[in-house]
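User: My collaborator sent over this chain with a note saying "see what the structure looks like." That's all I know about it. Can you take a look?
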Amino acid sequence: MVSSTPVPHGQWSRIILGRVLSGIRVLDLSRVIAGPYCATLMADLGADVVKLERPGRGDDLRAWRGGDGMSAAFAAVNRGKRGIAVELQHPEGARLAFDLARRADVVIENFLPGVAAKLGLGYEAVRAVTPRVVYASVSGFGQTGPYARRPGYNTIAQGMSGLMGLTGMPGHPPTRVGGSVSDLAAAFCAFGAVNAALVHRFRTGAGQHLDVNLLASTLSLLPDPVAQYFDTGVRPRRMGNRNANLTPAEAYPTRDGMIQVVMMNPDQYERFCTALGDATLASDPRFATNDARLIHYDDFRARVETALAGATTAEWLERFERASIAAGPVYELDEVFADAQVKHLEVIAEVEQPGYGTARMLNFPVRASVTPAAIRRPAPLLGEHTAEILGEIGVAPAEIERLAATGAIALAPPAKN
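Assistant: Without extra context I'll predict from the sequence alone. Here is the result:
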């Protein structure tokens, strides 16, 4: 446990070298993706993360795609944690959970606002005994306001933030963005806010309450269209693969696939035309400037598509690279991981996951020269570390057995032969 007293400047190096969050204890009371993934990123950086789940079923993510207590998604979103199963509706279970919370440096929860307080686990209750606690509440719409008590999920936040309204082909309805982007936006916002709050605590000894929600986190992905809307007062239109302000800056079909091409200045455009083998594009007054190309967009796109259809994506990538033009292939997800740069970045980790087998998952996305992240353990089985964790806070083995018999906790499942 890190001390609540401010850290003298000369001691910083001893804290940040190696596992940068070593010594930080995190109690993860959250479920599904947003809160749990924030806690997992902290585990990757060395924090001791304890995931608390209800006995019997645990986190709903365990059952995704028919998982028998362990799914690929749960393994990816909860790696690096220890697990304890506690029934919060049981008075003794709630007491144990509070004992864990008051010992934690960080608490992460994503109950509907007000529920944690009713369980005796709210920020004010924890702060009263642990003023240094960094307490992150992750919800759909925030802890206050007219929608605070509404449940919120990824697709709801996508719709209400305007992200879906910006996504899709012209003339077609708004389209959901693939992946749980609102959950992940909230996870990364919470991750940054928690670590900033820990820095503040190291300096002052004071904790704080962090209100993270999917709606505002999703809006934070849209600074440029929001700024443009307030600048012009014009609602952005769905543009499909187009960029509303630049062209060429979109995906085009090639002989065997699609390619993204983006350029930002006239010099790049001239090189693009030369690489394309259609030098007259640069001199044609309809296409000579970006503004002119936007006005004559359909004619310009037709010329580019005709040229690009004459060669494969790989051939165009080679030509554009020689011309210093930004370009990249458009992959289906199953093609991504064969790419040479993706392999080089080591974005995929393999983890031997009990209850599942070898799980392949995304790695921590940032490389650090001094404090590298690492996956140090698989995701926990339901209640896998209940006895271990309770023993660490002074609960005797006989008492642990009694608590299990009352249903206040659940112990690790028996090993399968």
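A starting point for your reply to your collaborator: The domain at 249-253+258-329 is CATH 3.30.1540.10 (formyl-coa transferase, domain 3).
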